[in-house]
Amino acid sequence: MPEPVAQTAPGQAAGAPPILEVRNASKLFGPVRALDDVSISLDQGQVLGLLGDNGAGKSTLIKAITGVHRLDSGDILIDGEPAVIRSSSDARSLGIEAVYQDLALFDNLGVVANLYLGNELTKPRGMRALGWLDRKAMEKEARRKLDALQVHLPSFSSSVGLMSGGQRQAVAVARAVAFATRVLILDEPTAALGVRETRNVLDTIAELPGKYNLSIILISHNMDHVVEVCDKAVVMRQGGVVGHVVPTAESMEEMVSLIVGAKNHRKE
To answer: pTM for the whole thing?
Structure first.
């Protein structure tokens, strides 16, 4: 099989370093090697599919990128420069946000409170500890962000716990988009959604690189979705990277074979 031709991702300047790069990452949990010399790269404006069966190491990798886990060895680079990510605050300061499968929403709070929890706007600006909440500004900005994502909710005052799965997913994505400036990580964003809600999420993923200049890592078990929105795919198995594939209808069988261990592809 001929080697894929390297292409510049949409929005990526020729010769520019990847916006995010993980080099030779390893992570142990006791005797279990969750990550084994993993290297991936994400270019500006690119949607990267991160594929693999349960236990492949995908969640450990993204939690290392977002500061939940510390790598035992290896490096994370942002725009070609080594980055120290020890917490979610470190990741956020570098423009990295994630939406996990559990969404991490507070069901008893409304939309605005969930969007700005921990990042509240205050009067005067820049004095969160001494100022007071600027509720009008937060609601105005929340409506603007949700409108830009074409998210329509029945009520801003309703508790998030009373919303549908798709509406909750939209709130979680909007919160991440609001604070991500470089990288957005989506962990199974269409899981348990209906057909119409899934369509909205996929349309949003396709639009985000151009509209917000974001680069996206998408974890998904749905190969049709990967083919539709991803520019390239990295397949993991048993803690390591086993292949890189350009997702197309023709390469779908190859991706599935890599996931289940039927074959090995080139390892970058």
So the answer is: 0.84
One DSSP character per residue, the chain reads -PPPPP-PPTTPPTTPPPSEEEEEEEEEETTEEEEEEEEEEE-TT-EEEEE--TTSSHHHHHHHHTTSS--SEEEEEETTEE----SHHHHHHTTEEEE-TTTT--TTS-HHHHHHTTS--EESTT-TTTSEE-HHHHHHHHHHHHHHTT---S-SSS-GGGS-HHHHHHHHHHHHHHH-SSEEEEESTTTT--HHHHHHHHHHHHHHHHHH--EEEEE-S-HHHHHHH-SEEEEEETTEEEEEE---TTTHHHHHHHHHTS------
Q: How confident is the model at residue 1 (pLDDT cuts 50, 70, 90)?
A: very low
Region 45-54: mean pLDDT is: 96
